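User: Predict the complex.
Assistant: Input components as received:
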Amino acid sequence: MPSVLLGNVAANEMAQEEEWANDTKLYMPYDVEQILLADNANCVAVQTFLRMCNLPYRVEYRKNAEFMSPSGRVPFIQCGKYLIPELDHIVTFVNNKGKSLTGHLNDKQKSDMRADLSLINNVLVNAELYLTWVEPVTLKEVTIPRYSSVYPWPLGTVLSYSKRSEVIARLKALQWYDKSIEEVYNEVDKVCSNLSTRLEKNQYFFGKPTELDALVFGHLHTIYTTKLPYTALWDTVKSYHNLIAHTDRINSLYFSKKG
Amino acid sequence: MGTVQAKEKQTMVRVPVEQAPVLDFKKDVRVDRVNVTGLKRTKDDFIKPIVRELFHATNFGDVLVKADKVHRRLENLECFKNIEIFVDTSKGPKASPDGIEVTFDVTEMNWLLGSVNAMAGSEEAALVVGGRAPNILGRGEKVQLEYTHSNTHNTNMALSVSKPLVNMKSNAKIKSSIYQSNASFGASGFNEQDRAANIAFEFNSAPNVHHTVLWEAVWRYLDSTTRTVPMSVREQNGHSMKSSLIHSITMDRRNKPVFPSSGTLIDITTEFAGLGGDVGFVKNEIKMQANVSLFKDFVLQGTLQKGLLSEYSDNKTSHICDRFFLGGATSVRGFEFRGLGPHEDNISLGSELYWAAGLHLYAPLPFKVFERNFGDFFRTHLFVNAGNLGKFDSGMDYRDFFKQMVASARMSCGAGLAVRIGNSARFEINYCVPVSVQQGDRPIKGCQLGVGISFL
């Protein structure tokens, strides 16, 4: 949606001089009974990023967060009078406030990081969407009951199927819909292997925590904590021990002590 | 009563000339036969219960009154484009001495009718394209498809099926429709898409007392119009489902619907939402109008409207699209559309309780420059409008509550010209002066235009 992005640029320019609002809110769907894999990963990633930046925020759970968001995707934050959806816009917004986690990177590292971010957004997100909305057992046992849980009959079923066709249209356009489930797991494996090689034995991808660490944590933590009929996705991921250690490290550092 | 007179003109009662001198309305007669000619696809058993009433007539005057009543009922079936009545003495071997024969000569409507209409509301103009098949199975069943597109890109598509229930004498009708509508309420910062199905039962409990009992299920989708819409409106975005039972009574005893000179109109609507779905509230609204003819053609009109929306459950709530709004050319004049009441960042939020009142003095155009018929289309008026919209604490003393509602009331006055359009709508151009305005309101001082059917 070009208008949304354009709006963002304008909002970011205007927001430059203002301080981070202490009553900033992060809007997301109910995480226990409603939220789905890919959305949850993004919500965890944004929260991790904000905690890494040490910026205060409050989580507001709304069943219609998806429709409140200016871009139609969750999560989004309300900082003062600005609404900013999704991790990449939020990172830009925070950078404009003078806070950046990537100040110590050189140009090559920055472009490496951007490549990894888009790899995750293109491959991991699509794999999660495939598993959530295409794989029939997960669709029936997890996705539809969760997505429709906040709506009355028969609206929940209708909205689930209209959301499904929306996601399938996206996957078709990106040539993901025709993949078999094994091919999907292979793609996930490739991404993990890439990330694992980049991380090596370091604590973080680029020395200090960056948005890449936040996004990787968001996805891996969600894959680990989400109960699905099949464990194949988690099985694919967990063989990369350095990634798992990275996830545990961020979890204990940013989430355990505050609870 | 104007409406009745208008219809009586159409009712052509032709009495043979040689009978004319002995016309005696009190004369005892017996209706021997009732003929209905011109029926093609209409079934006899559908018409019979309607005309049967004529056989109960005992004198000639009674025959005419009943014939007119039957004429109106036939007209209400919406199956015939023309109905003529002939009354004659009955002839033939079976004729009784005081026998009378009544013939209705009807012309059926075509199988399929199309129409293109222009329509104007308070904020927009629209084009309505429609097709209908009246009397599709021969018993008054009507199927209608309509598409409306307005200059503000609001659309509405509706498919409806209706059937008159002729065995009930009260103009009863059963009607069901499905529709999808898209509307943008820029003043309130939201777009609304509705997909709905409803079924209604309509009847008259007394002459001019019309009831509608309706069950409706609506799937609503709300969306913000701009990025800057305040959170209190934005947080209502998304899907909701309302299932409600609505009862409305309209008691229209005015002599005509536009520029009446006497009579009252009372309109009461009660809506109970929450039979399934996730939207729940009780909404009551009453609209009253009284007209008093003063000297010459001067008419004094008083109107009063009141509405209350209350929620009864924590799980099922109401949304911004369920609330009341005030202000605009057809509401409290001198304020922009929805420009009266609670606002946030210039976005009208609406509320749960309102009252509005108006006092108008209508006069014909001065100097009688126009001929009577042409002048009938115009009225000048002086008006005072007042109203209040908000959430008032009803837990307190009744008098305190009343004081609150009056204390922050808004008022405007002005003068203008009203023009009649067709038989139900009117156009107004007014010069308005807001007299009492509260913080956040969007008043208009100066000219305001309005087109509509229902005005305050």
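Residues 60-76 of chain B form the longest helix (17 residues).
Let me know if you want any component modeled separately.
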